[in-house]
Design goal:
- It is a single chain.
- The chain is an alpha+beta fold.
- It has one domain.
- The chain has 3 helices and 3 strands, in the order E-E-E-H-H-H.
- It has a 3-stranded antiparallel beta sheet.
- Helix 1 packs antiparallel against helix 3.
- The radius of gyration is 18 Å and the shape is elongated.
- It starts with 13 loop residues before the first strand and ends in an 11-residue tail after the last helix.
């Protein structure tokens, strides 16, 4: 009598995102909680509000990526696509499309220079 091994599925899935310059990175769970934020001192030059906005943007990106990873993990373990859809977990393509849309809408600071 051999027992079938059931793979252990973690309670949360984590993914990370970086800004264009690589000076700010955020890792967040599939539930939208940031678990790690790293940024270089140079990010202060844009001000607190710009830094907070960028952290939130990267948290959203990380959350979308983590949800897609979670979907793949659950699908590999036999969960039907219908259930995954009801859970609101995007497919890889849906996640890529959403991340592309976010990138197109990104109007964050591209320079430290201000108009005079």
């Amino acid at each position: 009598m051999s027992e079938q091994q059931v793979p252990e599925i973690p309670n949360v899935t984590v993914a990370g995102s970086r800004n264009r310059s690589g000076t700010l990175s955020v890792r967040a769970t599939d539930q939208g909680m940031p678990v790690e934020i790293k940024f270089e001192r140079s990010e202060y030059r844009y001000g607190a509000q710009a830094l907070a906005d960028e952290i939130l943007r990267l948290t959203k990106r990380s959350t979308i990526a983590a949800k897609a990873k979670r979907r793949e993990l659950l699908a590999e373990n036999g969960m039907p696509a219908e259930i995954l859809d009801r859970l609101g977990l995007p497919t890889r393509q849906q996640a890529v499309d959403e991340l592309d849309r976010m990138d197109d809408a990104d109007t964050g600071p591209t320079s430290w220079m201000r108009p005079v």
